[in-house]
Amino acid sequence: MSADQEKSMTGTTLQASQLQRMLSGQTILQDISLTVAPGDVVGLLGKNGSGKTTLLETLLGFGFASFGNCSVWGEESTKMSSDCKQRIGYVPQRDELPGEMTAKQLFHLYRQLRPRWDGDMVERLMPAWELSETKRIRRMSEGQKQKLAIVLALAHQPELLVLDEPVASLDPIARRQFFQQLMDYACSDNRAIIFSSHIVSDMERIVNRIWCLQGGQLSCDRTLDDLYESVVRVSYKGELAQAQKVAIEGLLHSEEDRVGGQLILNNWSQGRLIALQNCGLENITVSGLSLEEIFLYLHGAKHE
Amino acid sequence: MFILNSGSGVPIYRQLVDQVKRMVAGGQLAPGDNLPSVRELAGTHAVNPMTVSKAYNQLEAEGVLVRRRGKPMQVANQVTEAETPRVMLEPYLASVVQSAEQLGLNKDELPDLMREYLDKEK
């Protein structure tokens, strides 16, 4: 095992604490602390303009934080060694590929700049993703450019892969192919992936951790399992007085009909069942929510 | 081999666990059969490899699958008594009963409705 591999097996891939970022007098990011470990696939969710791109760029050291710090494999992001940078793959939201070049020319160039290069994978992906090696990049569609940028980011087998809205211009089939490739890539040890998207249903299969950015703050940093287990729908028969409802901890939403109703609860645990039974409720059933529903309720967007 | 849906409210690992159990109970997977590797399953279904591992670990802990060094996961020789097809159908029956109640139907009507439905299927 090389020293590099050993280094990345221990400890964290990426870490940030109390990160703050100001841009022209405006606070874009505020008090962000987070950790990424090898094996993590993190989904970064947030509305347009919530600061997703700024967060990814700051984590990778493309800009200076106004306060706090962030590091990748223990090296401060803005002062990363070239060795460290070689282990990172980044796909920006808008492609920054040279329009006059062809993919073939670009591969030739990259191969010289990158100590590691998985030529087999490139040869396999180009036809599979229906990309031309000889077409000038400026003649490619947005989706094709995005796919090419992803191939380039994967080709040097980075241990940290950061993708900013990677599927925005991909059609459903290309999206599926991309995620299949991404999950195959995630199977190797030591690799970590962070990607931003506003398509929640994509995240459900792919990620093990969700970050949610709201107004520049991390409003959610939880594992997917934790979200599924702690945000639930409770259906019941019976009636709940307003005072009883108010007393229910973590009540996100409630609805009633003639015989009973349903509650959406945060911080659920099996032990809370008794408290509900003590309220005089019957036929209590607890069921899970889709990730999309969980987010709508957590962010209060599903109130009538 | 498996059908994994996002957006259903059932976590992916749970879907995988349930489907393997159903296939074992129903005989589609026989004792000694190999399951796809974590990598294969994660790649073809585009799901997180940790999710697949988690499902396999749970199935191993419950005695449905066995793990052997350097080999694929295998269906165990003896599946526990509780996992009979009848027992496994129960949650689905429960949800039919619940839906019927919500629709204001009498529970006693259910056997007839089921029979009518099955006749139509033929």
Automatic annotation (TrEMBL), chain A:
Q: Where is the ABC transporter domain?
A: 14-240
Query: What's a Gene Ontology MF term here?
Result: ATP binding
Q: Which domain of life is it from?
A: Bacteria
Q: Which CDD domains match?
A: ABC_DR_subfamily_A (cd03230)
Keyword field: ATP-binding, Nucleotide-binding, Transport
Record's protein name? ABC transporter ATP-binding protein
TrEMBL record, chain B:
**Looking at the keywords, is Transferase present?**
no
Is DNA-binding found in the keyword set?
yes
Gene3D superfamilies attached to this UniProt entry: Winged helix-like DNA-binding domain superfamily/Winged helix DNA-binding domain (1.10.10.10)
Question: Boundaries of each HTH gntR-type domain copy?
Answer: 10-78
Q: Which keywords label this protein?
A: DNA-binding, Transcription, Transcription regulation
Record-given protein name: GntR family transcriptional regulator
Q: What organism does this protein naturally occur in?
A: Gilvimarinus gilvus
Organism placement in taxonomy: Bacteria, Pseudomonadati, Pseudomonadota, Gammaproteobacteria, Cellvibrionales
